């Protein structure tokens, strides 16, 4: 079976995504390292250090689709190591309890965590609360990107930052060919060999190709009420590895 969303009605996408992450949760960290050859760590480091958490004293952060806590841990480490800030907090939110459970094993009692849908965070997440909203490799799994952006805008304080790390579009034709070969053959193969689950990894690759390109996503961020820098690499977005991944930021007006 293929998990291409063209054949899957949108209202089924959420349960499909849940099944995918239920089935990969216990192997998620290992598989991330294997499929990206560890590069996801570099991208996540760059994502968090570009946001400089703790730079203006303690920040209240929310990491949505936070999974096993990679971004939250980096935010807390960065604030503590670079700014001697131990007061910054991160609320980790994910739709999938299994992923959060894996994350909780890492954090033990040190962190608050929450099960919630990025598209409708719920009343416990109060308007105008957060200085920083992060979402890494999560938004493309959501049925409605505009709903996620709307919720991000709602919970951020005016002047707060929205930051998204996501797979994106590669412009360079040579890099694009190599990357396609790698994603369509090696990643599902690694899924089969290491996690016994080809279909979930096939889905992950397909979902990357369906995500809007850099400028289109930047426009969606503006449509949700954020201001962004100019529509260029280094402005509204910063490409990592030629656009394999990309950081988008916007500030709540
Ligand atoms: N941010 C983590 C990281 O970078 O390692 C996890 C990324 S993982 C590829 C995607 C996560 O998005 C999964 O944990 C999944 O459960 C979560 N997710 C998918 N749809 C969601 C939704 N509608 N609301 C909240 N989380 C969602």
From TrEMBL:
GO biological process, one term: methylation
EC assignment: 2.1.1.201
NCBIfam families xrefs: MenG_MenH_UbiE (TIGR01934)
One Gene Ontology cellular component annotation held by this UniProt entry: extrinsic component of mitochondrial inner membrane
Family membership: Belongs to the class I-like SAM-binding methyltransferase superfamily. MenG/UbiE family.
SUPFAM superfamilies listed in its UniProt record: S-adenosyl-L-methionine-dependent methyltransferases
Keywords: Membrane, Methyltransferase, Mitochondrion, Mitochondrion inner membrane, S-adenosyl-L-methionine, Transferase, Ubiquinone biosynthesis
Subcellular location: Mitochondrion inner membrane
One of the Pfam families matching this protein, by short name: Ubie_methyltran
Taxonomic lineage: Eukaryota, Fungi, Dikarya, Basidiomycota, Agaricomycotina
PANTHER family assigned to the protein according to its UniProt record, in alphabetical order: 2-METHOXY-6-POLYPRENYL-1,4-BENZOQUINOL METHYLASE, MITOCHONDRIAL (PTHR43591:SF24), METHYLTRANSFERASE (PTHR43591)
Main subcellular localisation: mitochondrion
Reactions catalysed according to its record: a 2-methoxy-6-(all-trans-polyprenyl)benzene-1,4-diol + S-adenosyl-L-methionine = a 5-methoxy-2-methyl-3-(all-trans-polyprenyl)benzene-1,4-diol + S-adenosyl-L-homocysteine + H(+)
Protein name as catalogued: 2-methoxy-6-polyprenyl-1,4-benzoquinol methylase, mitochondrial
Sections of the chain in a coiled coil: none
Subunit structure of this chain's protein: Component of a multi-subunit COQ enzyme complex, composed of at least COQ3, COQ4, COQ5, COQ6, COQ7 and COQ9.
Function: Methyltransferase required for the conversion of 2-polyprenyl-6-methoxy-1,4-benzoquinol (DDMQH2) to 2-polyprenyl-3-methyl-6-methoxy-1,4-benzoquinol (DMQH2).
Single GO term (MF): 2-methoxy-6-polyprenyl-1,4-benzoquinol methyltransferase activity
Annotated residues for binding of S-adenosyl-L-methionine: 68, 94, 117-118
Topology class, membrane: Peripheral membrane protein
Pathway: Cofactor biosynthesis; ubiquinone biosynthesis
Domain of life: Eukaryota
């Amino acid at each position: 079976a293929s998990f291409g969303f063209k054949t899957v009605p949108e209202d089924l996408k959420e349960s499909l995504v849940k099944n995918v992450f239920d089935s990969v949760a216990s192997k998620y960290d290992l598989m991330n390292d294997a499929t990206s050859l560890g590069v996801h760590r570099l991208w996540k480091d760059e994502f968090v250090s570009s946001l400089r958490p703790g730079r203006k004293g303690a920040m209240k952060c929310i990491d949505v689709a936070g999974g096993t806590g990679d971004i939250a841990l980096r935010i807390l480490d960065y604030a503590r190591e670079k700014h001697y800030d131990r007061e910054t907090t991160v609320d980790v939110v994910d739709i999938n309890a299994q992923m959060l459970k894996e994350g909780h094993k890492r954090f033990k009692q040190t962190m608050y965590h929450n099960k919630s849908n990025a598209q409708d965070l719920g009343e416990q997440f109060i308007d105008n609360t957060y200085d920083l909203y992060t979402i890494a490799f999560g938004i493309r799994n959501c049925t409605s990107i505009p709903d996620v952006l709307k919720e991000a805008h709602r919970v951020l304080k005016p002047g707060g930052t929205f930051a998204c790390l996501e797979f994106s579009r590669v412009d360079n034709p040579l890099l694009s060919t190599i990357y396609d070969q790698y994603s369509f053959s090696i990643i599902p193969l690694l899924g089969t060999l290491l996690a016994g689950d080809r279909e979930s990894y096939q889905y992950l690759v397909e979902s990357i190709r369906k995500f809007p390109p850099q400028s289109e996503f930047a426009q969606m961020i503006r449509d949700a009420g954020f201001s962004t820098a100019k529509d260029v690499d280094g402005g509204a977005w910063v490409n990592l590895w030629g656009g394999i991944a990309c950081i988008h930021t916007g500030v709540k007006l």
